[in-house]
Specification:
This protein is of the alpha/beta class. The chain contains twelve helices and 14 strands. The strands form four sheets. The protein has a five-stranded mixed β-sheet with strand order 6-5-7-14-8. Helix 1 packs across helix 4 and helix 2 packs across helix 3. The chain is rod-shaped.
């Protein structure tokens, strides 16, 4: 919304009132100069460096020496700059060359631009104690319990300004990384992608746990007793059998599922207060046993081990903060 003036194109003239010394108004003509578009694709950044040297030295030969050009090359650069800015920039004076008004106006913006370009081309430094921001991680409750506490502790000790937000991972879905909704996915999902990178955090296998109140806890578990027991089963998908059930199926066997649940934490409360047996990753089983509510039992058959990975999008491959976070996860996973 324009106030006090009619709307005009940039090439128009208009007349506005100007208060005179008398009560009456006189009129002055104002010209609105058109804004000239600059083809930035045709801009040679080397010319800006030459211009900075010329403005600093106010002498073609000294400017050439400053940037490592020959005197003829700097003279040609000055010629191009004069055409570009439609101004002589340097003119002869009584004591040598001097800057035009336009050249003096250019000096500070030019210094700012070259400084910004220098920062753009310099690799950013990362000081954890000075970093602020949020890291978003998608994962499941096994990974939350098995590695996140150690990783978060290590991150917070050195970078207290970084906040961490955990989002639930839906199945094996890695698409939140593609959509830039999360920074990392920590999961056992084994998938390769041209747009995602990953590192193995650790490899795990399985152990059985039962309530410490169960009499079976004092006996060696056999295949027969394992299949006869009532099971609490962890499953993240109603359509996908897990590693344990797949191993049993290859032998033509099946365990008796009484409760099927997608969360380890909820399963632990169920098993602690029942006669059910739970087959879980060893890292998690160790945490359960440390609570003194469970006793471990060796699985009576071989099950393939599995790996937990940390995934990230290749757009963040060289991001200093991302790299530092990944290295923290790798470091604590080895403990």
């Amino acid at each position: 919304m324009l106030s006090g003036r009619a709307s005009l194109s940039s090439t128009d003239h208009f007349i506005e009132p100007e208060a005179s010394k008398s009560v009456a108004f006189t009129w002055r003509i104002v010209y609105i100069s058109p804004m000239r578009e600059v083809n930035i694709n045709a801009l040679d950044l080397n010319l800006l460096i030459a211009l900075k040297a010329l403005l600093d030295e106010q002498h073609v030969t000294r400017a050439a020496e400053k940037v490592g050009l020959s005197q003829p090359a700097m003279s040609r650069a000055l010629g191009r700059l004069r055409v570009m800015f439609k101004d002589p920039l340097l003119v002869k004076g009584a004591s040598g060359m001097s800057l035009t008004s336009r050249a003096r106006e250019l000096y500070q913006p030019l210094q700012n631009i070259l400084g910004d370009i220098g920062q753009l081309m310099t690799a950013p430094t990362f000081v954890p104690s000075e970093m602020t921001g949020e890291i978003v991680i998608a994962t499941r409750d096994y990974e939350m319990a098995a590695i996140l506490p150690q990783a978060i502790k290590a991150i917070n000790e050195e970078a207290p300004g970084i906040s961490i937000r955990i989002m639930p991972l839906s199945g094996d879905d890695l698409s939140p990384l593609e959509r830039h909704e999360v920074d990392f996915v920590v999961a056992g999902t084994d998938r390769k992608s041209s747009t995602l990178s990953r590192k193995t955090l650790f490899t795990d296998n399985f152990v059985c746990v039962v309530s410490a109140e169960q009499s079976v806890a004092k006996k060696k578990l056999t295949m027969e007793s394992y299949l006869a027991m009532r099971h609490c089963i962890i499953s993240f998908s109603e359509f996908r059998s897990g590693i344990v059930d797949s191993a049993l199926a290859k032998m033509g066997l099946e365990r008796k599922a009484v409760v099927t649940i997608p969360q380890f934490l909820a399963a632990s409360h169920i098993v602690a207060n029942s006669d059910l047996i739970l087959t879980i990753p060893k890292r998690l089983g160790k945490l359960f046993v440390e609570s003194n509510q469970f006793l471990p039992l060796d699985l009576p058959f071989d099950v393939p081990s599995f790996s937990i990975y940390i995934y990230w999008h290749i757009r963040n491959e060289n991001n200093p903060m991302h790299t530092w976070i990944r290295n923290k996860f790798l470091a604590v996973s080895e403990i």
